[in-house]
């Protein structure tokens, strides 16, 4: 099999669509390789898998924020800080 992913010229790494063996693909800047177009959202240059990872991190941050607000309401700001640290290390 021809591993073209190691030789990506500037043109192909920036092209929105590259036809590889009759399949429409796009170069993923996050993985440094080509994926099928179905892996991408719209004109994004990184695949959904990577974007999902970003979203996961964002959800975690949101959860921390919610926890912070919750603890602030119950007036335990010091113990809430400990809780946050525990959550981060998971
Ligand atoms: Zn990718």
From TrEMBL:
<keyword id="KW-0479">Metal-binding</keyword>
<keyword id="KW-0863">Zinc-finger</keyword>
<dbReference type="GO" id="GO:0003677">
    <property type="term" value="F:DNA binding"/>
</dbReference>
<dbReference type="GO" id="GO:0008270">
    <property type="term" value="F:zinc ion binding"/>
</dbReference>
<dbReference type="InterPro" id="IPR004333">
    <property type="entry name" value="SBP_dom"/>
</dbReference>
<feature type="region of interest" description="Disordered">
    <location>
        <begin position="71"/>
        <end position="90"/>
    </location>
</feature>
<dbReference type="InterPro" id="IPR036893">
    <property type="entry name" value="SBP_sf"/>
</dbReference>
<protein>
    <recommendedName>
        <fullName>SBP-type domain-containing protein</fullName>
    </recommendedName>
</protein>
<dbReference type="InterPro" id="IPR044817">
    <property type="entry name" value="SBP-like"/>
</dbReference>
<dbReference type="Pfam" id="PF03110">
    <property type="entry name" value="SBP"/>
</dbReference>
<keyword id="KW-0862">Zinc</keyword>
<feature type="domain" description="SBP-type">
    <location>
        <begin position="1"/>
        <end position="61"/>
    </location>
</feature>
<dbReference type="GO" id="GO:0005634">
    <property type="term" value="C:nucleus"/>
</dbReference>
């Amino acid at each position: 099999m021809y591993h073209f992913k190691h030789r990506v010229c500037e043109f192909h790494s920036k092209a929105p669509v590259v036809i590889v063996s009759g399949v429409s693909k796009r170069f993923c800047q996050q993985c440094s390789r080509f994926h099928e177009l179905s892996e991408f959202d719209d004109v994004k240059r990184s695949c959904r898998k990577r974007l999902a990872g970003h979203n996961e991190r964002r959800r975690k941050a949101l959860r921390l924020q919610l926890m912070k607000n919750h603890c602030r309401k119950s007036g335990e700001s010091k113990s809430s800080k400990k809780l946050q640290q525990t959550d981060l290390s998971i």
